[in-house]
Every structure is written in C-alpha cells, then in structure tokens.
Amino acid sequence: MADIKTFYLPDLGEGLPDATVVEWHVKVGDNIKLDAPLCSMETAKAVVDVPSPYTGKVVKLHGAPGDIIETGAALAEFEPDPNAKQRAEAEATGHHHGPKKTEAAPAPAPAPAPAPAPAAAKADREDEGTVVGAMVSGNTVHVEQAASIGGVKAVPAVRALAKKLKVDLTRVRPSGADGVVTMNDVKDAAANGSAPLPSPSGRG
C-alpha cells in the first residue's frame, strides 16, 4: 500500500487563523514536484502561492476555490515518489516565506549624561559672612600691686577703705599672702575696734 502523506495548511501569516482557496494549480492524479506551485491561498493580508511539500502524485485536494481552510487543517494528500528526493521530515513544509524582516528594535535612548558635579564651594566665600577677628578689649586690666607703706602691705583700695573706716593698718593683722592686709582684714578690724586710728592730739 502506498504511503500517503497529508499536507496541512501552514500558517501563511503571523498568526492568521485561516485562508481561502483561490485556485488549485494541480488536480487529483497529477504528478507534482517538490516546491512546485500547489495552490494560491488568500489571507487577510495577501494572496500567497503555496508550494508542494513533496514530489509525487496528488491523491486528494481538500476544498474548492472559495472554500476557507483553517490553519493546521488538511489541505492536500500526496503519494510521494519513492525514487525522488523528498524534503527531510525535519524540515518545515509549506509556503516558503522570504527571510522574515525583523524590525530593528529602536535603539535604546542614550542614558542621560550625569549632571556635572556642583563646583566645590569655596572655603573662603566672601558671602558666607565676614570673619571678625577676636576683638581685643582696649580696657587693660590693671592689677593693683600691694605696696608696702609704713611697714604695711596693702593695695590702694584697702588703704582707702581703712581710711574710711578709720582703721590703723599698722595694727591690723594681715591674712593675705606675703603679709598683705586684705579688705576683710580691714572690715574685721573696724567691726571689733581692734585697730582704731589714734585720735589726733588736740591743743587744750
């Protein structure tokens, strides 16, 4: 028994569900060669010539002109010629589309250039505020030195206080360092009357 091969309608477009038979280029019983025109099919996009997938005899044609054949449905049956070279089973059969034009993917937009780094702030920017130097006070602090007058060491302020309180510095017991009479010494002497100034001798 002859080996009958069924040819199924290949996808003639990009995912088209079916195609309409426009014209058969052969009839049942005809011998056809591999890749010879088998029929013309009209798709939603164009009329396409479908080549024969085998070299051999046409056994059956599915559909008449005007009939709609679904993609993947039987289109024709063949009895391949065992002595003729056939397309390898692994090879795709059906319409030979030209090299599919692959639309070049749009080149990705170039990454935006990194924003220039902000200029380093000047350390001595004038608008950052005027640097005011340490103001040197013009008020010089005069340290009063305890002067030894009449054998008594005391600063002028203490002497003035002693005079005011009528305290005899020569009789005041100093408590400051190096025998210096302090303010407290004068106040204590005035409070307890331990060092009163001698009363001026008056004429009688």
UniProtKB/TrEMBL annotation:
Domain annotation Peripheral subunit-binding (PSBD): ranges: 153-190
InterPro entries: 2-oxoA_DH_lipoyl-BS, 2-oxoacid_DH_E2_comp, Biotin_lipoyl, E3-bd_dom_sf, PSBD, Single_hybrid_motif
Family: Belongs to the 2-oxoacid dehydrogenase family.
Residue span, Lipoyl-binding domain: 4-79
GO CC entries: cytoplasm
Disordered as annotated region, ranges: 80-129
Ranges of Pro residues composition bias in the record: 107-117
Quaternary structure and partners: Forms a 24-polypeptide structural core with octahedral symmetry.
Keywords: Acyltransferase, Lipoyl, Transferase
Keyword check for Acyltransferase: yes
Name of this chain's protein: Branched-chain alpha-keto acid dehydrogenase subunit E2
Cofactor entry: (R)-lipoate
Any one Gene Ontology molecular-function term assigned to this protein's record: acetyltransferase activity
Bias (Basic and acidic residues): 82-94
Source superkingdom: Bacteria
Pfam families the record matches: Biotin_lipoyl, E3_binding
